[in-house]
């Protein structure tokens, strides 16, 4: 019986490992991927970024895919496949308690066929750190040696590395040293490239939940204590109002008891219960602070060149913790409530400062300032503590029609920097476009093999465009500034879909002890697909 159950589990695992190929029949490149999450409509697949680069137009099970997130540095990519219903593999951040591992991936069987095979091996004891040449970023990889009669082949990139002790995925095969040696990226790096990682991966145990619990316990307890202190202050400052409410509740309870004892009729019982519930609901509606959507407010009524003070408490008598410039926007507001004097103050986060400002000096604003295609559009937004990127595009067009797109990039309060948005076209179409609007300082069109930039100030290696691309950028970018551009691209008549890789970036100046000032880049990238239908 146990052997049957084990065999069934292995079959389910094999179904979750997929063959990634190109929709272009002339492109024979392929790789491996595996399911890490699912929803009602399909599955999320993890693979290597270089696999996506080589196949150019990836597909799985004859289905076109959507690239959710990817990174050249981490060599990881998350793709989404509609109508693919498989069981996601269990992911494990903690170290494998045994050196025995297995990798399952695809390799060539003949000129026309591929095979899915299991590769047995053992982990080397040491973990390897791979460091960036540009900044101090790094990630961890493990080295694997195959057992006798097993070998790593082309096509194994993206294969899950499975700990035999737990049966969970601890890494992903990225490249090989020789036929019996390969390297695997530790699965913990997934959190670095997929910031919108589905919380069910943690809550349901796909990633071991205790890892995240211990990592975040200090943050949780501090936030809980902060909220508890705020509620205590509310109770202390509004004692009379609460006492009145409690007296009303007590009176209703006494009436309820009296009705039940003297009348013994159900209608009085339910009437009393309904009254109490209504009072409790009204009590919480009136007394709970109003919650706001964070990072959606701007400073108003402050003269140019002046600043808005951030106070320690809800009033001008409290110490100043920091200031917000008059031109600032997208200020993070978490709640607004009245102080003892009846004046409304709002709790804000600006940079690393958390405090209170008077509500008269902030005003809600729209996130998107330019949207050239409101009728028939898709959109995505990406945000972190350094930048905010919003991009709109039509889901489908006809051949020869204009593809109306717009991009907005914002500096989220960082020191003066430079940045921009790049659109690259991996299918290498002939670009026919017009610029409808642009307030970036520069706009460039790079053709294939054009020199883009030097890879690093200390290196003489030049970078060349491998795809046609368009770039809008500004060399001087003050804190909290935003820039927008809008284009009309003529839909190519020889393509069924147009793929555009959208990349927003900011280059920040960062002081590193004993090393001086270094450039650090914050960016977000995503590939979109526009259908071209006759």
Q: CATH topology of the largest domain, which one?
A: Thrombin, subunit H
Which value, in Å, is the CA radius of gyration? 29 Å
* Count of the domains: 4
Strand content: 35-45%
User: How far from one another are the termini?
Assistant: 56 Å
For the record, the CATH class of the largest domain is Mainly Beta
Model regions low in confidence, pLDDT < 50 over at least 5 residues: 1-7, 202-218, 238-243, 289-293, 367-376, 453-462
> Would you report the number of β strands?
33
Descriptive overview:
It is built from seven helices and 33 strands. The chain is of the alpha+beta class. The protein folds into four domains: 12-206, Beta Barrel (Thrombin, subunit H); 238-288; 291-364, SH3 type barrels, CATH 2.30.30; 378-532, Immunoglobulins (Immunoglobulin-like, Sandwich). A hairpin with a 3-residue loop joins strand 32 (497-512) and strand 33 (516-532). It is globular. The protein starts with a helix and ends with a strand.
